[in-house]
Design a protein that fits this description.
Layout (H helix, E strand, L loop, with lengths): L1 E6 L2 E7 H10 L7 E4 L6 E2 L10 E3 L16 H4 L17 E3 L5 H25 L15 H14 L3 H5 L2 E5 L7 H15 L7 H16 L3 H6 L1 E5 L5 H21 L4 H14 L6 H8 L1
Antiparallel strand pairs: 1-2, 1-3, 3-4, 5-6, 7-8
Helix pairs in contact: 3-9, 4-6
């Protein structure tokens, strides 16, 4: 949904819904700024646009007023002149609060926490079943199920364990949970473009790009494509942050302990692989695996 708005007497846009969130949070535009999108008969305060109504909490009002269903495009959007936006901004009848998007650092920490929880769970199950080391454990195939699981959890609960701990949820623009197909499609998009298949050093580059997108636009590419919005569902204090960091550390220690039994087979497999390439395993890598 493309949205236009009036700022300083000039038409701005178009922009998709998530792109407006950083502008609202910074105060560059306000809930009373006049805006328009398809389906509105004329310029309307942003807080009353159907596409943005979900983002504004208003005390004492259950529903947002309709702004019409006419698909006609205002002349100011088609061409030269702007309609009269009034001499000043109207005062809302009740206090309005913009629903905040989660900071990039919280989203990153939630992603790390979900990843180490999954890794610990998978290695724990493999050890419980007595499975020997297999080269597939170091490939993207080990991680792919995590993103299908993530899609399922988002469609069922609106959050993953990491997101839930850090007060983040992912919903549609109208506040409803994702459908099953949306959850799966989002998971695949994250696996491809968010973490780079979890292959080699690709995740570092892809997560850096995603971090930049969220910092600049307030939303990642995959959420923008699906019209989804991560938002702060609850307050996150220092206790939750500390708990998340401790849980990440505990999972990494646990995962390291779980793979110790596979180290001899891992080293033998890596020796063959490096020998085939005419080199040897770096000493730092060998020491890291042994310790």
């Amino acid at each position: 949904m493309e949205i236009y708005w009036i700022s300083g007497g000039k038409k701005c846009g178009p922009a998709i819904v998530p792109d407006l969130l950083p502008l609202l949070e910074s105060g560059e535009i306000t809930p009373e700024t006049k805006g328009w999108h398809k389906g509105c008969p004329d310029w309307t305060p942003l807080r009353d646009l159907p596409a943005l109504a979900f983002y504004f909490k208003e005390d004492g009002r259950e529903e947002f007023p309709p702004v019409g269903t006419d698909d006609a495009v205002p002349s100011s959007v088609r061409g030269a002149s702007l309609p009269d936006a009034g001499s000043g901004e109207t005062v809302p009848t009740a206090p309005i609060q913009v629903i905040a998007a989660p900071p990039p650092v919280l989203r990153f920490l939630a992603r790390v926490l979900d990843s180490v929880l999954y890794m610990t769970l998978v290695f724990g199950l493999l050890r419980l079943l007595g499975a020997p080391f297999h080269p597939l454990y170091g490939t993207p195939l080990l991680w792919l199920p995590m993103y299908f699981l993530e899609g399922f959890l988002l469609s069922r609960y609106g959050a993953t364990p990491g997101k839930m701990l850090l007060g983040i949820s992912v919903t549609r623009l109208d506040g409803r949970r994702l459908s099953g197909s949306q959850g799966i499609y989002r998971g695949i998009q994250v696996f491809l473009f968010g973490v780079g298949f979890m292959y080699s050093i690709l995740p570092l580059f892809m997560m850096a790009i995603s971090w930049y997108q969220v910092r600049m636009r307030g939303v990642a590419t995959w959420d923008a494509r699906l019209g989804l919005v991560p938002r702060m569902a609850s307050h996150v204090g220092s206790e939750r942050l500390l708990a998340a960091l401790l849980l990440v550390f505990a999972c990494m220690v646990a995962a390291g302990m779980l793979v110790q039994a596979w180290v001899p087979d891992m080293l033998a497999w890596m020796n063959e692989a490096f020998a085939g390439a005419g080199t040897e395993i770096p000493s730092w890598l060998k020491n890291m695996l042994k310790n």
